[in-house]
Fold:
Amino acid sequence: MADDDQPELFPEIPLNAFGGRTYDPEKDYQRLASQLRQVRTIMLDGRKHYLTELAKVIASASGIGTGLSARVRDLRKPKFGGFEIESGRDPGKPGRWWYRMKLDDSGKPVRRTH
Structure:
């Protein structure tokens, strides 16, 4: 499912959507918005994904690492779609977490209700 398929699920990302003390829209917006779109596209399969896996797929973008976990958390925010993102610890590696976008029976992303 591409962003163009259901624009109501994938709102345009406004220039002021990202924030923080060091955020400079002129320098950071394109990179952060691109990372967010890439993370969202990967997670639309409803499978569990680890940050290391996401980093390998998205490695062509500059400055990853903690940025990817922030992009996964962004997907939960209403301004980025308000998606239901599940997470849990890998039972074999307690310090490793997985993330999964919850899908309904028809395969569409579920939105948070709170």
